[in-house]
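**Reference record**
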Amino acid sequence: MASDAPRIDLHYLNHADVQALALTDAEIVQAVEDGLRAQGLGQATIEPRMHLVPEKDYPGHFNVLRGYIRPLHLAGVKVVGDYYRNYERGLPSELAVLNLFDPQTGAPVAIIDASDITDMRTGAVTAIGARHLARKDSKVLGHIGARGTSYWNVRLLDSIFGFDEIRVHSRRPDSRNAFAARLEQDLGKRITVTDDWESCVRGADIVVEASRLDQPAPLLKTEWIRKGACVIPYGTMSAVELSLTDIMDKMVMDDWGQARSGPFGALRAHVDSGRLHEGNLHAELGQIVAGLKPGRESDGETNLFWHRGLSLSDIALGAFMLRKATARGIGQVLRFR
């Protein structure tokens, strides 16, 4: 009977294949926004992420993200390593694999190098959050961090807002200088490199905190945040003061369930201490994208968007890549059984 079983093939996209797809900024944002909309409309299932720490003396851990998007007819599991000292080995800090499955049979559909997906979808969620929660006339961006996701944060934010001034800072001078040089080349505008957090953040219209800290430290001071700003922190280790939530008019997350699990996250201490809870959470971003709850309602609002990263965004972007790769004959078809 085994010989009569239907053949199962899966599509494999390696890093070169993903790059060959040459996704546009608009394609990335639209794909991720479609996933958020499905979440907001209750057409998706998301499970809290899980963590694996192989050895306590290794400088990193694994995140395991799981989800299902009904309109795409795909379930997915992404495993991503988060190793902040990988630069010492010439490797990205985040290396990932996305597995897509048929939700009716469990059959594998695709295996995709998700390192770029992680960076792209993170930048897209940052940009979509800002589009709904920042002032439309925001012209100054202050960005802390120069890791892989940082590039897509700045690039996709700038595609929406067209900033007059972009400031960047990170711990290592060589890292922040290389980051600025890449942005200047790709965006065609001057990037201001700062030597400290305050000069990067103070008075900015949009503040993104994507630092890579070894342990929590309140390096971003609440007093630097201007009224009417939008603040988007998502470092694994918190870099903000507990008082940050006190000045916010609206606080939004990508998924509240993610805030209740795991030891990591930019606002972990705020949840644990009761400063951020389900009662004062304005909305999940998907609810705003779906039109179920309002985003920014006045220029005077000071808003916070905390995103931890959703499997749904990985699945939505991976699904778009798979469709484009199939249409263009990119990647390899592997026999599963």
About this structure: The domain at 125-309 is CATH 3.40.50.720 (Rossmann fold).
